[in-house]
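QA checklist item 7 of 12: single-chain prediction sanity check.
[x] sequence parsed
[x] length recorded as 171
[x] structure emitted
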Amino acid sequence: SSDQVDEGNVIRTEPAAGTTVAPGQLVKVYVSTGQEMSTVPTLTGLGLEAATNALTSAGLALGSVTTRNDPDLSAGTVISADQAEGSKVPVGTAVNLVVASGKVTLVDVVGYTTEAAERALSADTLKLTPTIVEDPGCPANPGGPTVAAQSLAPGDVPIHSTVELKVCTGR
């Protein structure tokens, strides 16, 4: 095989081109089978270590690894690859992966009504568990129950986290 000479073309001869040979003398001709190819293995859903091992076994290399938040996948789980599963690529090709961060981005729900906060936190894009914690030590909002504080700061939090929402219920 050769990655420089197309399949079916002569790579070299023995003796070398330009050498004078006697009639009937054996001349070996080496013909390219083309670039050696490999099949991209299944990577989606694997952990990063298992995906790296699968790539190595296939004669491929791990390229860049980018993390992305996903509410359903634990940290390091492969979400996608830049080469399609089952496709043929040259041996040694670097395959770039997107893996789950194991986190989701929590928004600040302070000031939201409890209903809106619960809806936002349990949405399919976050899948967090909101719990209401009533606080009789602070005055209730006359317009209805609103979130006065949340147990986790806005930003990236572990998937499936429980977020306590403090609601003032006092007079």
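[x] summary fact logged: The helical segments are 48-57, 114-122.
[ ] second reviewer sign-off
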